[in-house]
Amino acid sequence: MTATEVHPVDQILPTPRLLALGLQHVLVMYAGAVAVPLIIGRALKLPPEDVAFLISADLFACGLATLVQCIGFPGVGIRLPVMMGVTFASVGPMLSMAAAPDIGLLGIYGSVIAAGIFGILAAPFISRLLPLFPPVVTGTIIMVIGISLMRVGINWAGGGLPTLTKVVDGVPGAFPNPGYGQLQGLGIALFVLLVILGLIKWGTGFIANVSVLLGIIAGAILASLLGVMHFEKVAAASWGAIVIPLHFGMPQFHLVPVVTMCIVMIVVMIESLGMFLALGEITGKTVDRDALTRGLRADGVGTLLGGLFNTFPYTSFSQNVGLVSVTGVRSRWVTVAGGGIMLLLGLLPKMAALVEAVPLVVLGGAGLVMFGMVAATGARILTAVDFRNNRFNLFVVAISVGFGMIPLAAPNFFRNLPHDLQPLLESGILLCALVAVILNAFFNGVGSKEEAEAGAAAAAATAQH
Q1: In terms of C-beta density within 10 A (0-12 exposed, 13-18 middle, 19 or more buried), how is residue 259 classed?
Q2: Residue 339 domain-assigned (yes or no)
Q3: By the 8 A CB rule, do 75 and 294 touch?
Q4: What angle do CA 330, 336, 340 make, to 5 degrees?
Q5: For the ranges 5-9, 75-79, 168-172, the one whose mean pLDDT is highest
Q6: Is residue 329 part of a domain?
Q7: Where are its TM segments located (predicted)?
Q8: What is the pLDDT of residue 217?
Q9: What is the total count of domains within the chain?
């Protein structure tokens, strides 16, 4: 690439293409984006209008955090095609805070704001971990990210979660989801999958790039004809809403919740480091220590904005990494457009309700394609690793993948360990990352910063071909 040539990540596409591709990213992440405010709002027993406000605030803050991450400001923002959303790693600790009468929602917001400030300050130190991530580690982590996401895609295709939590006589309990695995829903997911695969094979240019969006639209039309997609909430939603900072009052700061959320922030930042390295591989853009620092600092800024705008900690959404791999569109301005759409959805509840009306089974058909592509990217990176002359690399991959599968294969595996460790142990991605880093350092030693950046550059160059 010549000095005057623009990298595909920085190319600005025509506006109609940007909007269509940005909407595609929004549809992929929407279900995950609104899940956390729904869970926390219901746990706090907030009235419906407050839960609706939480969702609007979350969409608005998603847009803000995405713009900060993708456009970038001095010292802040990875400037890669990233969509930001509320991290699920924070759900367990926030549910515990919600159950404590002396903490509640304002205590949650205080801990989120503190965690955001902590993330901004800690970013340079977390980015120094780059030498611990040679290709054998990054390839393993990226593969486990994809495999972990497959559980999300499969459950989407099944119609949600196999069991639902309901409160009966004041006691929460798990009940089978009657709509899970229904033949009609599986048929819709398969239809979306076939449409996407057909467009990928026979579509060209822009049509192939928006294959996921067109597949979701086709699935939504089919779901409407079959009576699966409903529009009552769309009709009831208001046209406009104003997201006011500190809507529920001044945040409260309690030591234990603040420390807990800062630990969650470390977990989030290590996962984000893996996501950024994955995006660097997919887009062919070298991700060095300075870029990692800017990206991780943007996670902290996004979390700080989340606490101020009545929502929760933010991180890079791994769902959208798969979409970049499927479409081959590497421009960060596509996710800038997606961030703008999220801002708009936060201010227009009726439009947000329309997007929310898309059934999960429709998204499931798309999820199987996208999340599998993330795993395939990890596998491709591992093909460049020397397994023939260095048998230790086989053990690094084998054992790390095994640890990464524990939360997926046996969700109650760590249930007898201290509750405070749950944020660390419930993430298969984090477990895989920790084990891979430790085993690689044990068997192969730790390289220098220059070696790590050279390896990242070589892998990025390989990904371009």
Answers
A1: middle
A2: yes
A3: yes
A4: 150
A5: 75-79
A6: yes
A7: 18-40, 52-74, 80-99, 106-126, 132-154, 183-200, 206-227, 256-279, 333-352, 358-382, 394-413, 425-443
A8: 86
A9: 1
